[in-house]
Amino acid sequence: MGLTQDASSGASPERYVQEKAAASGSSFYYAFLFLPREKRAAITAFYAFCREVDDVVDEVHEAGVAAQKLQWWAQDVRLAFAGENPAQRHPVLRALLPHVAATGIRAEHLLAVIEGCQMDLQQNRYLDFEALQHYCHLVAGVVGEVTARILGFQNEKTLAYAHQLGLAFQLTNIIRDVGEDAQRGRIYLPVNELQQFSVPVNEINLGQYSDRFTALMAFQAQRARDAYADALALLPPEDFRAQKPGLMMAAIYRDLLREIERDGFQVLHQRTSLTPLRKLWLAWKVQAFGRL
User: Fold this and answer.
1) What is the per-residue DSSP string for 58-99?
2) What is the reported pTM?
3) Which of 138, 183, 227, 262 sits CB 3.0–4.6 Å from 168 for a disulfide?
């Protein structure tokens, strides 16, 4: 498959991942800003990896081509962690590899994220929340765990906190992106819950709002709020300081969820977002005062 034109343009791996992370405008980027240099470099490289494989699903319109690209990524990860041909690795992996020994990142972590992206090519509905949870584990729970490893922890229970926080982030993303995902042919709202609230798929595809849809989304929002509460209850006190960037992201994402609710779940025709200044303020507040 080879490197993309952008990835082979001559920029250093570190500059490449920095530009990839900054260009996304994600809430994660604002939490990275407060990290020491080494941790910031590691988490930026990991986040850039997640963006690269996720972009394959969202931006490559031919499913067969997207599947081949993801297979190439999986092979590149295996070769990179085996130490083969380091000069020929993708810039993202070249930026990430120097940090794996210190952080405990394994090939299986990256392969799980790729597997989650592959699910997007093979499945566009989930029968129930249990089925959706497996997908969320791959694309968000594992990401949370790797992030916790990079940030550092003393208590193994912190990994459970990070996994649950990743689930909360993903549930928020699902609520925010209902309309965009439907346009791509994917609906992450569980089928049995669509039936429970009598919301047919064609109404979502057509962008039709109703009291039934609002009730369905309020149900999803409550689940996301519960996930945040469960995650925060799992964080051991001795790791609170080290995990502050995750708490910054939680502050930003919970505020985003509240904004969506205040707007009446108008997610079928628009993508609600917070301004960069607001994200920076929320992140700074956690950094300065140590609370969400």
Assistant:
1) HH---HHHHHHHHHHHHHHHHHHHTT--GGGS-HHHHHHGGG
2) 0.90
3) 227
Determine the Cα–Cα distance for residues 136 and 81; give it in Å rounded to an integer: 25
Contact between 43 and 151 under an 8 Å Cβ cutoff? The reply is: yes
pLDDT, tens only, 68-94: 999 999 999 999 999 876 767 899 999
Phi, psi of 240 (to 5 degrees): -60, -45
User: Using only C-alpha atoms, what is the Rg of the chain?
Assistant: 19
CA 273 to chain centre: 15
Report yes or no: 271 and 177 within 8 Å, Cβ to Cβ: yes
pLDDT tens digits, 123-137: 999 999 999 999 999
CB-based burial label for 23 (10 Å; 0-12, 13-18, 19+): exposed
H or E segment at 202? helix 201-205
